[in-house]
Amino acid sequence: MDEPMSPYSRFVVDGFDADALLGVVRDTRFEQRLLASGHFRACVQRLVFPEFSLDSGAYTLPIFASGSFSQGMIALALAVTCEEPMWANGRWIAAGQVMVFAEDSELNVRPSPGGWQWAVMLIPREVLQRESVRRLGRELRLPRTGWHSRAAAPKDARNLREGVFSVLQEAAEWQGVVLPEQLEVQASTLLGVFIDAVGASDGGPERRGLGSGIERRRDAIVRQAEAYLKSQLENAYDSRALSSYLGVGERQLERLFHDAYGHGPCHWHQLARLNLARSALRRAQGRVGVTEVATRYGFAHLGRFSVMYRDVFGESPRDTLRS
Prior knowledge:
The protein is of the alpha+beta class. Helices cover about 45% and strands about 20% of the residues. The protein has helices spanning about 20, 125-135, 155-170, 180-200, 215-230, 240-245, 250-260, 265-285, 290-295, 300-315, 315-320; strands at about 10-15, 30-35, 40-50, 55-60, 65-70, 75-80, 85-90, 90-95, 100, 105-110, 115-125, 145-150.
């Protein structure tokens, strides 16, 4: 007879690996790109309950993550810990402030420098509303499309963060077969703190999910700039061409990129090429060499490429190729 699957799983990514991080949220694909130099380490945890799941990741360095949540699932997301507010879809979100995403909604997120732990609950809309009626006596105000986030009271933010942290800590200590009663207690705790946090901040007038028109416009410009730069990864960065393509001044683009990524579009372009080169080297399996990969992503000078690569990832391209 097969052993029952554990509802809790944990794995560590030691050294940045975009492929290993793709599925850190259940049934989704979030592309992630390293944004700072140093040794990257991530501890990723998952709890699967009969009706919903919780994923969490603790990262040592800031990344940029982009993807869409599962179809048929509401996503409740937050920063459990972060030294400064994180940038998400054009807005700044403080630790403990819950973001509510409708089914199949997109998230683009970047934490500020320093340690960062995030958590995401995926839950069917009908289950969340059923449990909200039981706990609050009413349904939550949930978006039909897009997302919304409202500032949480300090007490609610603290209770949510502590609730998520305590559940994950206890699950990490489980040994052997997990009893249904244990799962039920953990599920009740998580549902309680999430519902209380969302319910405490949804009593005001309905607001558009992506914030103000200015925020949406800024986010759209950054997304368009990203798409253009991705089409130019084999070429040197050209600020005038990017500005002309978008119809936006170069100084404004610098400000928008610094808000979104913590650096300008030129550095974004360089980091994007380095991240793609790293993925190619990790997948090479002896079929290609460092020079071929560097040339493919627009690095004409192999020595400079190796120096930049080591500065960001903490190892040489040849070390990655051999690993």
